[in-house]
Amino acid sequence: MKKLSLSIILLFITVSIFSQGIIDFFSNSLDSLEFYVEKNDTIKSLKFFNILKELDSTRYEPYYFTGYLYYQNKNYNRALDYLKIAASYNEKEDVLYLFNRSLFETDDKNFLDKINYSLKIYPLSLKLNKLKLFYFEKTKQYDSIFSSAQKILSFEDKDVDALFSLAKYYYRLQNYYLSENYITEALKIENSNKNYLFWAGKIFSKSKKYDQSNFYFKKLIDSEYDFYSLNGIIDNYLSKNTIDSFEIFCNMALNKYPDSILTVKKFFNLYLKTKNFSVIFKIDTILEKNKIFDEELFENIGREFFIVDSLNLSKKYYDRLIEKNKNYFSKESVQNYILLNELEKSENIISNMVLKNLSDSTFFLKFKGIIKYKKDENDSAEFYFEKLYSLNDKDTTNIKYLASIFNRNKKFLKLSDLIESIKDSYPDLYERLKSKYIQ
Which pTM does this prediction carry? Predict the structure, then answer.
């Protein structure tokens, strides 16, 4: 009996020692796995994962650490293979967060269901609530952004991500007063955060507090936000009508970014505000020097040169537009080339015109007729002028052109009928046309 008891005791000791050895081995292997995950050594990490899986396939830690390894390498789908199992074995907050974060990164359609389930377990988890907030921002669910941010602030009133989200939320609603309040609170917590500084510049500019806006934008000069901050400052000075400072920062921006179309367009905005034509010549010099092309800008400048009868300068811009786009059309370019007697080019451009309304049809017929008239193609000119007259018989200019072309084509009978038709509506014109064309 004593021998049996002794044997049982020895067996128990042996099993205990063996079990403790397994436990120690598992613990050491787990430490090794964690160590190599931190070192980002995939091969050795997977080696210890397989060892641990053989020892106990129901423990969550090996799956969690290996999932984290793939997560930090941005292989989110592979991370999910491990984290899904880890979460099924253990619903610790860290495990659920990393699992949900990987779902978020892969735009998984089940993300919202999974994060809501996790928040039932940890309703006051800051990182889980913030992850849900980031999801609503990512998917542009603005009402949900508001409610999610408010929930976070209800138990963490200085959470900077929630404050920043509300600053952007109210910015989109054009409630700049509340937007200012939230971005100011966010900057009290992280006063050197460049993204917050940039948004502060945007928000205060919208609320027309231009000096305050420039205060934030100027902090970002020579940072990764440099280009857009400089252009924000330029806009603010233009809005303040501080032209000297406007030009200083425009020149600074162009020295740094000589091919910046955005900055050149700021000069065009200055021209629209001041109507100082020297600004247009300055833009012309900048575009020429820096070899910049922008269809919208070229069309605007071409039109402005046309308006003041600088036809050759206007032609320079229209030539480039046609060179870049064989289907280019504008009403001003048609007229510009007619006035320069470049009739073939004018006719090519007008052939690209899409007629959307009566005004377009009137323009097309009128200037197509003029082109044919100037090319001495009298029958074609008559065709277009007659159609034009049928559309708009009250336009004295159209009547003059039609009368003139009828005279060229010796159609005196039709000419007299035409002149007679305007006797009551335009008596003065009637008398002039009658004396000129009817003998």
Answer: 0.76
